[in-house]
Amino acid sequence: MDRRLFPRTLAVLTLVATAATAGAPTATAESPTPAQTRLNATIDAVLADSRLAGAQAGVVVVDTTTGQTLYQRNGDRRLVPASNTKLLTSTAALELLGPGHRFTTDVAGSGARRAGLLSGNLYLRGGGDPTMLAGDYDELAAQVAAEGVRVVTGNLVADDTRYDRTRLGPDWTWDDESYYYAAQVSALTVAPDTDYDAGTVIVQAAPAAGAGAPPVVTMTPPNGYLRIDNRAETVADGETTISFERDHGSNTIVVTGQIAVGEAPESDWMTVWEPTGYAADIFRAALLRHGVRVLGRTVLGQATPDDAKPVARHDSMPLADLMVPFLKLSNNGHAEVLTKELGRVISGSGTWSAGLAAIGEYVGDSGVNTGTLRQRDGSGLSRRNLIPPAEFVALLAAVRAEPWFDTWYAALPVAGNAERFVGGTLRSRMRGTVAANNVHAKTGSLTGVSSLSGYVTDADGHLLAFSIVLNNYLTSSVKGLEDQIAIALASYTEKATTARLAVPTEPDAPRVPEGLECSWVKPIAC
Questions:
Q1: Residue range(s) of every CATH 3.50.80.20 domain in the chain
Q2: How far apart are CA 324 and CA 301, in angstroms?
Q3: Quick one: average pLDDT of 442-459?
């Protein structure tokens, strides 16, 4: 592991030292300039909004050019950060795995091969790749056929042993289980789309030709692993109320509600129970299409023998490229795979505990005071994650010196940029303001939790690192308040002016169900 040097750690700690003062509403330099006083008054006014009455708010802003803390409120308070947790996971992954890291999925055979006959098992070994599509499994099957294998006398063995068999985070809530943002984590999985929502299937219900018949339900990718229980109805007219739900512990998806003749299809992304079996089903069907018959059954969870002979291989995109869908769309599955991959690579154990230990060591070496926080998963889905805003700012300041910083900075969502893989979860926020195409930051959302941490360039050209974490509010959304603060930071200048910095108008943004990132609402809400 590439340890951080002590002088750099000391510099980072000095940078955020004033952000660790407890309790004071605002604390900046000992002699704040008039501009800082105006900025403090502006942010204080935003945080005085009635939507935050009785809530907790932590805000820290540091000028990374000068090292000065421009604003601080409750910087050392441990708050639930939601998806801002991904800042820790993503930076640790880039440093410890490297921007060029790839996941490998391969196929190997045991036993003798003669005249198209493999007298043994065929092993499909997962390397944790969360970007594996049905088409990638088809390419693997084509490679097997090109190697001359036509009949496998043994079993198809799905090897997911790179990681442990704990599929769900220990603190995740049960009612999230069937929805794609809480997909099970396996070293062998399938994504149905190029958002790479691994461990999920897209279910679509289209109206039948006539009223009274059930809708036509299809799945992407087509598979024999999940079963549809279609209880819905096509009606002559009326509101569409189609709903999809997967039963706990099964791969039965129940479709209920109604859809009118001629209406557009309804679809949703549903998680799969045991993604390893899902991947094996997709691969087995692909083998058959390419003329390869497996005579035995499908077996899950057995390791590939050391003496098995390679037959086919697929390498993922490099980690630098994966950072884009991961951070832009706040993909929870990517965060958890990276956590387990860190554990596997650093300590030989593909578990959450080993991965979190690796993340903690990296961010601690970077100047984050890990004794003040608790990280329970890689994505932020757990409500037991507790991270003070000042520690986010310490990390944001430190990683500017990393060789991969530009790649990571570009992968963060960009405010107000309509391109989905540029703006990401910020694409509909702060449009038409000075913060648009300026703020690079990670969003976070759970019920009663909202966060925004990242960077903004102020009017003087200084790069500011900021963290806003809001907890325990009762209203539907407080994201507009985060946007107002970010806009004020983008407008900040130390140049002479006597005007009081006005509280920015709250920008319009699309409505997203409380507790969800906009990209977690399918079809895409941002």
A1: 104-166+276-316
A2: 31
A3: 97
Domain 104-166+276-316 fold is D-tyrosyl-trna(Tyr) Deacylase; Chain: A; (3.50.80)
pLDDT at 509: 58
Mark whether 309 is an active-site residue.
no
The residues of the chain that CATH labels 3.40.710.10 are 34-100+320-520
Which amino acid appears at position 344 of this protein? Answer: R
Q: Tokens 């023998």: give the residue.
A: 305
Element spanning 202, H or E: strand 200-206
Q: State residue 247's pLDDT score.
A: 84
Catalytic residue among 83, 267, 382, 467: 83
Q: Please name which of 272, 128, 129, 250 lies closest in space to residue 200, comparing C-alpha atoms.
A: 272
Residue 411 sits at the vertex; the CA angle it makes with 407 and 415, to the nearest 5 degrees, is 130
Catalytic residue among 330, 366, 379, 519: 330
At residue 526 the predicted structure's pLDDT band, cuts being 50, 70 and 90, is low
Which tens digit of pLDDT belongs to each residue from 95-152?
999 999 999 999 999 999 999 999 999 999 999 999 999 999 999 999 999 999 999 9
Q: Is residue 83 flagged as an active site residue?
A: yes
In the block, residue with structure tokens 């997203």: 512
Percent of the chain predicted with pLDDT > 70: 91
Which pair of structure tokens corresponds to residue 38? 């105006």
Of 318, 358, 402, nearest in space to 1 by CA: 358
Task: For residue 403, give both structure tokens.
Answer: 């060789």
Q: Is 428 a catalytic residue?
A: no
More confident residue, 25 or 100: 100
Looking at the whole model, is its pTM more than 0.70? yes
- Selecting from 3.90.550.10, 3.30.1660.10, 3.40.630.30, 3.40.710.10, what CATH number does the domain 34-100+320-520 have? 3.40.710.10
502, β-bridge pairs:
none
Pick from 260, 271, 252, 268: nearest CA to 215: 260
> Which candidate, 317, 316, 313, 315, places its Cα nearest to that of 142?
313
For 116, 129, 189, 292, 493, the CA distances from 109, given in Å and listed in that order, are: 12, 21, 20, 13, 65
> Could you read off the pLDDT of 235-285 as tens digits, one per residue?
999 999 999 999 889 999 999 999 999 999 999 999 999 999 999 999 999
- Sequence-distant (6+) residues with CB within 8 A of 6 are none
Instruction: Give which of 203, 195, 462, 183 is closest to 328, Cα–Cα.
Output: 195
- Which of 86, 328, 442, 522 does the annotation list as catalytic? 86
Of 520, 523, 514, 511, which is closest to residue 203 (Cα–Cα)?
523
Which tens digits make up the pLDDT trace of 395-427?
A: 999 999 999 999 999 999 999 999 999 999 999
